[in-house]
Design goal:
The complex is a heterodimer of chains A (259) and B (572). Chain A is α+β, with helices and mostly antiparallel strands. Helix content of chain A is 39%, strand content 23%. In chain B, α4 runs parallel beside α6, α4 runs antiparallel to α18 and α9 packs antiparallel against α10. Classes of the chains: A alpha+beta (259), B mainly alpha (572).
Chain lengths: 259, 572
């Protein structure tokens, strides 16, 4: 169901979509049942002249079974949900499949820096490739990332990959993803990080082998045009609103005139 | 008669019923009814501010970059300040004062047959501190740099370092206001618990207490047990901001995650703190208007105990992807999903109460039933978010936002209107206009669904919270998504416009409404056995209670209700 709204572009995005579907089936069943009972009772037992309400204490077993048996069924469904969830969770967050590439993702107010370890697979060496607000990856290769923050909490979120992880200052958090289809997708900051939180976006571009080589060559030669800027096109907006202080005053006046 | 109540009986002001001056009657009251109304009116005024903020930022989302009528331009900093304070106000200055402090103060002594709270002066102090906290919060909007904009969860280091948040005093006043508010509710809470445990009318056993009172007391116990860690956290945050300590700053040896644990250790029980009063009020309303005994009084009560207990061990589900050890998440998934068990049982009992009833659709009943329907959606969508793997996708997305508005809107707004319309005759001695009440109900409930159902879809599309302009994200700038945003905003405006119907109805009915009899709804609980509005001191003589609160349609009785204080020989 999620894939109807947004691309499913990583190796585990399908798992999350399927989990969503399974839970929707279980919850949908309960929702229709309970909501149906609620609506039916409301319509069926509305007030009629001369009809007195029944006296039911809900304490005898013959009565409580109507709430207890569904209740046991809820427990059974809960077990199914927990089990299905833990399988997916362990696969995504608790296991690191062998890596093909290593990147470092650094969040700071209000931009993303990406450091690709390059050919040697080791960070902080001469062949590292650093980009800002633009991440280039190869399709069908497993990437490990080291997530860091320079100031406040950020969140590295790639909706198309169903990937999301908080970046915490003072810590390095590891994770992985494996893109499965080419294209360019949004990276958003998903944790409130201050004034520019709303513009702290970036672009992740998944390349085929040859397009990746071309792009890296462009980056190295300096003839590169940011995919992030290209994607945003004319919708680019200045992040800093210089008239902020005056606005605050007009807001104060307005509020004072209202209350 | 318990000792505590006897003591109060000796207070000259209360038992002699002398006419008090305006100052002592309305400005510095000791009467729990007036204090309750002070809380309710303060909460309603704060709700107007919170709704106004919602209007401003929803307009910015629907029509980004354009001047919002009656507000002005909403820039990124302004937007953050609006969403932050909308959340803070609606939870701490609307839900808690109106439902717990306001109605708690008003109905607890009336429903348990007591003349006042056992500590009236503490009660007055509690409201005065609350008022100061509200004023401090409002003041924080006007200081240099503007109001705090780091989200209502105020995660450090953003909230603790002025260079990061750009709201130096805004952030400090915000946390100060929140801490003051906690002090106020701690004082009020001790009063609620003591009153209910010690000052009940003779004959009222623990299992005869109306669910509304039980649940408010449970909520208060839950609040008092959970608020300690956050209060400590608030002081640490304030010290980080003002005197340069580094409790939450990694560069000084602190840990930002510490705050999250302290905050959510309180923050999750807080959900049930505001839920339980509404659940209790709804239990009373649906029994009265369906003329039915509550289905399984003890079961409902014990499920509430279970929910309250479980709510202490689920907090880390707010932090699945916050950098905690992923193995810990599995434990919290289990506890989180388990909380569905008592709540499902409670919901089943409420629905079973309707079975075989004689349901009358008065305005309070419409609100109570709509609460059940809306809260059901909020409840089931919570299961998605309790599943940690789905939380990877949904954390801080509009799916979360829609989910918790489907819980908090029914709890706060629907619960508030249910309680207001139900006790209005008792509070002001006049009936509200039913037709206007129903217009207001449908004008609120339908737009409410039109606002928040579409937001689930935006969440599925990967839209994150607290972003002031989605045009910056190419995947989210699509026109069909923008149409959804505009639809939600228009629905919000419709909802807000319909609130004027309520305001009109409220004030006109207060002065010109039809005179209310003692017991307009034919309800059983003690507050309906005395005049509307109740005189100072409530009961002429202390009532004696002979039975539980939910003896409706008892076989063999001519009347379909049986007041708690009616002697058994008066059996008609």
């Amino acid at each position: 169901m999620i894939e109807y709204f947004i691309h499913s572009a990583s190796s585990f995005s399908g798992d999350i979509d399927n989990l969503f579907f399974v839970i929707t089936l279980i919850i949908g069943f309960w929702f229709i049942l309970v909501f149906g009972a609620l609506v039916y009772f409301i319509l069926r037992f509305r007030r009629k002249d001369g009809v007195k309400a029944q006296y039911i204490t809900g304490e005898k077993h013959s009565e409580t079974k109507w709430t207890h048996y569904p209740h046991y069924a809820v427990i059974a469904m809960d077990v199914v949900i927990i089990a299905a969830n833990i399988i997916v969770w362990v696969n995504i967050k608790q296991t690191l499949p062998p890596k093909d590439n290593l990147i470092r993702v650094i969040g700071q107010q209000w931009s993303w820096s990406f450091v690709d370890a390059g050919q040697d697979g080791v960070l902080d060496t001469a062949d590292d490739i650093t980009t800002v607000n633009d991440l280039h990856v190869k399709v069908d290769e497993t990437y490990h990332f080291e997530l860091q923050s320079r100031d406040v909490l950020h969140n590295f979120s790639v909706p198309a990959f169903r990937l999301r992880q908080d970046a915490v200052p003072g810590r390095t958090i590891s994770g992985w993803f494996k893109p499965t289809s080419t294209g360019s997708f949004d990276i958003q900051c998903a944790e409130m990080c201050g004034y520019g939180h709303g513009i702290m976006g970036a672009a992740i571009t998944v390349h085929s082998e040859e397009s990746y080589t071309t792009t890296i060559a462009q980056i190295k030669s300096g003839t590169y045009e940011s995919h992030f800027q290209k994607r945003k096109g004319t919708k680019t907006e200045s992040p800093i609103n210089t008239s902020q202080v005056e606005e605050k005053d007009s807001f104060a006046e307005l509020l004072a005139s209202i209350f | 008669m318990s000792q505590a109540a006897t003591k109060i009986k000796l207070e000259p002001n209360i038992q002699q019923h002398e006419e008090l001056s305006f100052l002592y009657k309305y400005i510095l009251p000791l009467d729990h009814k007036i204090i309750g109304m002070q809380y309710i009116f303060t909460g309603l005024i704060m709700a107007i501010i919170g709704g106004y903020f919602a209007y401003a930022f929803r307009m910015q989302l629907a029509f980004p970059g354009e001047v919002v009528p009656f507000y002005g331009l909403v820039g990124p900093g302004e937007y953050n300040m609006l969403v932050t304070n909308h959340g803070t106000i609606m939870i701490f200055w609307v839900a808690m004062p109106v439902l717990i402090a306001g109605f708690g103060n008003y109905i607890i002594p009336l429903m348990i047959g007591c003349d006042d709270m056992v500590f009236p002066r503490l009660n007055r102090l509690s409201f005065q501190i609350f008022l100061v906290s509200a004023l401090v919060l409002i003041l924080s909007f006007f200081v240099r740099g503007g109001g705090f904009g780091g989200a209502w969860t105020s995660y450090p280091p953003l909230s603790s370092v002025a260079e990061y948040s750009l709201t130096d005093w805004g952030a400090s006043l915000w946390i100060l206001a929140v801490a003051l508010e906690f002090v106020s509710f701690l004082l009020g809470g001790i009063n609620f618990i003591t009153t209910t445990m010690n000052a009940r009318a003779p004959g009222m056993k623990m299992m005869d207490i109306p669910i509304a009172v039980w649940f408010i007391v449970l909520a208060v116990i839950l609040f008092m047990a959970s608020v300690g860690p956050l209060f400590a956290g608030a002081i640490m945050l304030f010290m980080d901001q003002r005197i340069g300590t580094t409790f939450f700053l990694p560069s000084g040896g602190g840990d930002p995650l510490l705050w999250q644990h302290l905050f959510w250790f309180f923050g999750h029980p807080e959900v049930y703190v505001v839920l339980l009063p509404t659940m209790g009020i709804v239990a009373d309303i649906i029994t009265v208007f369906s003329r039915k005994k509550l289905f399984g009084y003890k079961t409902v009560l014990y499920t509430a105990f279970a929910t309250a207990g479980l709510s202490f061990v689920v907090w880390a589900h707010h932090q699945f992807i916050a950098g905690i050890d992923p193995r810990v998440a599995n434990v919290f998934v289990v506890t989180t999903v388990l909380i569905s068990i008592p709540l499902a049982e409670m919901m089943f009992s409420y629905i079973a109460t309707l079975y075989g009833g004689s349901i009358e659709f008065k305005t309070p009943m419409l609100w109570a039933l709509s609460f059940l329907a809306a809260f059901l959606i909020g409840g089931v969508t919570g299961i998605y978010l309790g599943a940690s793997a789905l939380d990877i996708y949904f954390h801080d997305s509009y799916f979360v936002l829609a989910h918790f508005h489907y819980t908090f809107f029914p709890i706060t707004i629907i619960g508030m209107f249910a309680a207001l319309t139900y006790w209005f005759p008792k509070m002001f001695g006049r009936m509200m206009n039913e037709t206007l009440g129903k217009i207001h109900f449908w004008g609120t409930f339908i737009p409410f669904n039109c606002i928040f159902l579409p937001l689930f879809l935006l969440g599925l599309a990967g839209q994150n919270r607290r972003v002031y302009n989605f045009q910056n994200y190419p995947d989210l700038a699509r026109q069909e998504l923008q149409d959804i945003r505009i639809f939600a905003t228009v629905s919000l405006i419709v909802l807000l416009l319909f609130q004027f119907v309520f305001i009109y109805n409220f004030f006109v009915s207060m002065f010109k409404g039809e005179k209310a009899p003692n017991n307009p709804w034919n309800a059983n609980t003690l507050e309906w056995s005395i005049p509307s509005p109740p005189p100072h001191g409530n009961f002429k003589s202390f009532p004696t209670v002979y039975r539980g609160a939910y003896e409706y349609s008892v076989p063999g009785r001519e009347l379909d209700y049986w007041p708690q204080n009616e002697p058994p020989e008066g059996n008609k």
